[in-house]
């Protein structure tokens, strides 16, 4: 049992009181956020374990769904692209699976992260604790799901043994960059969803559109074959700036291509994600004193 310090709703310092005491700067809020997470590591671990147990109990297949679901999605997209669209690509199931797996992790984390604060409204009204741990726990639980997803990847690699290489060991590095980016998105949406409850519904549609605009079913090189992209080369540049264009290409490099990812693009994405994470941390911390009142 993780100890909590009981309190009433009114004992949480309102925003007006904080402003009267002096509005904390952005760097101070970021330091507070880091401290909140590090000092509540046990609470984060408890919430992650509770989330995984809940997922396992909610469905018959439980956490095994993380193994089965990406395989089923792979089959659907393979049938659509290879048979209906009739576009042939060597070892295409492995090609799209390298994108489906990280995308499933991202969408699951964003969906859970969006409601991570609002779903704990009773707890927030009764107990004092840093609310930042809620989206952190939701995003970290997604990492566990991603780890389960590596099982079907291993099984799939048995059918494409010629693509097995030591570059597969680089997957955790790419996943770490994705984790930072996902955490920033979860901070933003979890805070926003407290005040705009339709944000969860909107985000689902945005995620669906994001997938099709990302090179999940195709590679960035395919864009060079399209006439309207040739006439407007800036579209290729814009597509390459998509964070998941960088991530998908990186995963494919180590899983499908048997080579190093584009370290420069990956490093730039990491730097951009860290800046994004800092901004969303500040936003979350500034809105946090109002959560109990709104919920």
In words, what does this structure look like?
The protein has 295 residues and is mostly helical. The chain has one domain. Helix content is 70%, strand content 1%. The chain is built from 14 helices and two strands. It has helices at 15-20, 26-39, 41-58, 65-84, 92-114, 121-126, 133-157, 171-195, 199-213, 227-231, 234-240, 243-255, 263-287, 291-294, and strands at residues 5-6, 127-128. Strands 1-2 form a two-stranded antiparallel sheet. The longest helix is centred in the middle third of the chain and has 25 residues, at 133-157. Residues 1-21 have low confidence and may be disordered.
Q: How do the helices and strands line up, and which of them pair or pack?
A:
Blueprint: E1 5-6, H1 15-20, H2 26-39, H3 41-58, H4 65-84, H5 92-114, H6 121-126, E2 127-128, H7 133-157, H8 171-195, H9 199-213, H10 227-231, H11 234-240, H12 243-255, H13 263-287, H14 291-294
Antiparallel strand pairs: 1-2
Helix pairs in contact: 2-13, 3-7, 4-5, 4-7, 5-7, 5-8, 5-9, 5-12, 7-8, 8-12, 8-13
């Amino acid at each position: 049992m993780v100890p909590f310090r009981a309190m009433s709703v009114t004992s949480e310092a309102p925003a007006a009181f904080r402003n009267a005491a002096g509005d904390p700067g952005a760097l101070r809020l970021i330091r507070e956020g880091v401290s909140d997470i590090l000092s509540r590591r046990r609470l984060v671990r408890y919430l992650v374990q509770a989330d995984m147990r809940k997922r396992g109990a909610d469905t018959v297949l439980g956490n095994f769904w993380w193994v089965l679901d990406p395989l089923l999605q792979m089959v659907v997209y393979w049938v659509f692209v290879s048979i209906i669209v009739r576009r042939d690509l060597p070892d295409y199931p492995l090609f799209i699976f390298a994108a489906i797996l990280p995308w499933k992790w991202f969408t699951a984390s964003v969906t859970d992260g969006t409601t991570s604060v609002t779903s704990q409204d009773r707890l927030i009204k009764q107990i004092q604790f840093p609310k930042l741990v809620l989206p952190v726990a939701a995003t970290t639980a997604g990492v566990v799901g991603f780890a389960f997803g590596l099982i079907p990847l291993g099984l799939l690699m048995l059918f494409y043994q010629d693509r097995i290489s030591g570059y597969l060991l680089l997957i955790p590095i790419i996943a770490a960059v994705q984790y930072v980016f996902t955490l920033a998105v979860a901070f933003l949406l979890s805070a926003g969803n407290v005040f705009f409850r339709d944000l969860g519904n909107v985000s689902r549609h945005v995620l669906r559109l994001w997938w099709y605009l990302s090179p999940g079913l195709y590679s960035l090189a395919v864009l060079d074959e399209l006439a309207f992209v040739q006439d407007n080369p800036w579209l290729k540049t814009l597509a390459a700036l998509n964070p998941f264009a960088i991530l998908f290409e990186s995963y494919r490099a180590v899983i499908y291509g048997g080579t190093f990812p584009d370290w420069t693009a990956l490093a730039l994405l990491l730097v951009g994600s860290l800046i994004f994470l800092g901004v969303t941390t500040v936003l979350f911390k500034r809105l946090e004193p109002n959560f109990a009142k709104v919920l």
